[in-house]
Amino acid sequence: MVTAAAVWEALAEIPDPEIPVISLVDLGVVKDVAVDGTRVRIAFTPTFMGCPALERMQACMEEAVRDLGGEAQVDVVLDDSWSTDKITPAGREKLREAGFAPPAPRNAGRTTLVQLQAKAFRCPYCGSTETRLDNIFGPTPCRSVRYCESCRQPFEQFKTI
Question: How close are the terminal C-alpha atoms of the chain, in Å?
Fold first, then answer.
């Protein structure tokens, strides 16, 4: 018999296709799991509406449920937007260990360019806040490129969304 705990455990093993150091569960895109016998409904909120990995993530979740002996229905939930606040503490640490600067906690207001240019972002390699914004546009819409003036390493900073 398929259990919700087993499904969550299986989903926690699926790496994000764009950033494989973090799982879909740690990324916070899996919103809910409901099990009824062998039928499993997964509510899933992508990081953004135009995510190019959406179909890949759905297929991986369906396969994980099939491997448990269940039949998956993955519902993409678009009426509840994802935010970087949904990344788990373990996920933030995995990002940092892989050389990504995790996003700062989200403030109530909008992030401004002045905030992005501030020296408040910590280098994932040496921990220094002596960093600068090199490019607001990183490899994906949720990341920017920063440079550490202390250890001289470039790194990707997750934008607070």
Answer: 38
Q: Amino acid identity of 106? A: R
- pTM (2 d.p.): 0.78
Q: Specify the amino acid at residue 15.
A: P
pLDDT in tens, 65-79: 999 999 999 999 988
Rg (CA), the chain: 17
| Helix, strand, or coil (residue 83) | coil
Q: Which residues lie across from 97 on neighbouring strands?
A: none
List Cα–Cα distances, 86 to 31, 90, 147, 160, in angstroms.
Answer: 10, 11, 26, 11
List of E strands, 77-120:
100-101
HSE-up of residue 19 (Cα within 13 Å, Cβ side)? 29
Query: Crossing angle of helices 4-11/54-67, nearest 10°?
Result: 130
Structure token digits, residue 38: 């062998």
Q: Each residue of 33-85: pLDDT tens digit?
A: 999 999 999 999 988 877 888 899 999 999 999 999 999 999 999 887 888 88
Q: Closest Cα to residue 8, out of 45, 59, 53, 43? A: 43
Of the ranges 20-29, 82-91, 131-140, the best mean pLDDT one: 20-29
